[in-house]
Amino acid sequence: MTKTATTETIAPLQNVAICMAALDRAMNRPTHLPGMVVLHGPSGWGKSTAAAVAANAHRAYYVEARSTWTRKAMLIAILKEMGVRPGGTIPEMGDQVSEQLVLSGRPLIVDEMDYVVERNLTQIVRDIYDASRAAILLIGEEGLPEKLEKWERFHGRILSWVAAQPASLNDTGELARFYCPEVRMAVDLLQRVHELSKGSARRICVNLELARERAAELGVDTVSLETLAGVQLYTGAPTRRKV
C-alpha cells in the first residue's frame, strides 16, 4: 500500500475512529446492502490521514486520484497498488481490478474522489463495485455528496455518507502530546491554537511546531501564550505586507 501510517504513527483523533467505523460497516454489511461509503469534509481535517490508518488496519488497496487521470491511468494506478500487471485494454483492466477485489476480499479506498467526478470517471468506480461487490471507501471534499447526486445510479449504491468532524480541543491536546512529547503545552495555548485552527488539524500541527521551535529556542519544556509573545500564530490567511 502507498499509505503506511498506523495507529502507532498517527495521533488518535476522532476522524480516525469515524473513518474506521465507516469502512468496518461497509465490510461487515449484510450482502443485500450497498457497499460504498463516502467520507467528506473540508481540506485539512485529517481525512487522508484517517484513511491511511484504515487502509493499514484492513489491508485496503489505496489510491489517491489525480487531476490528470484518464480511464486508463486510473485503472493502471489501482492495478499497480494491487501488484497486478495491467491488461491490454480498458475493459480487461477493469475486470482485473474487480477480480482481485473478489479474490482478496480486501476493500478499496479512493482518496481525492472529487477528481474522479470532475474527470467523468465515476462510472468506472461503479463498474468495479457492481462486478466485485467489494467494500469501497470514497474520500473527498465537503461538496462531494452534492457532486455525486447527478450520478443517480451511482448515488443509489452508497451505504452511508459520513461527515468528517472539525478537530476538537481534545484533538488539539492529542496532537500536542503525539508530535511534541518533549514540550508541555499550557491550556491557554492549546485553546488559542484550537480557536485559530477553525477545525483544521493541519493548521493545529503548524502552530504546535511553532510552539515547539520556540521552546527549543528558549530552552524551556513548557510553553504558554505568554511564551509565544511576538510569535505570529498560523491562521491559514496570507501575510499582509506592511507599507
Structure description:
The chain has 11 helices and 7 strands. The strands form 2 sheets. A 5-stranded parallel β-sheet has the order 2-3-4-1-5. Strands 6-7 form a two-stranded parallel sheet. With 243 residues, the protein is α/β, with parallel strands linked by helices. The model has no long low-confidence stretch (mean pLDDT 90). The protein has 2 domains: 14-163, Rossmann fold (3-Layer(aba) Sandwich); 169-223, no CATH class. Helix 9 packs across helix 10 and helix 9 (169-179) packs across helix 11 (201-218).
Keywords:
about 240 residues; alpha/beta; Rossmann fold; 2 domains; five-stranded parallel beta sheet; 7 strands; about 10% strand
Brief synopsis:
The protein has 243 residues and is of the alpha/beta class. It has helices at 14-27, 47-58, 71-82, 90-104, 113-118, 122-132, 144-148, 152-155, 169-179, 187-197, 201-218, and strands at residues 36-40, 61-64, 108-111, 136-140, 158-163, 184-185, 222-223.
Please render the helix and strand layout as text.
Elements: H1 14-27, E1 36-40, H2 47-58, E2 61-64, H3 71-82, H4 90-104, E3 108-111, H5 113-118, H6 122-132, E4 136-140, H7 144-148, H8 152-155, E5 158-163, H9 169-179, E6 184-185, H10 187-197, H11 201-218, E7 222-223
Parallel strand pairs: 1-4, 1-5, 2-3, 3-4, 6-7
Helix pairs in contact: 1-2, 3-4, 4-6, 9-10, 9-11, 10-11
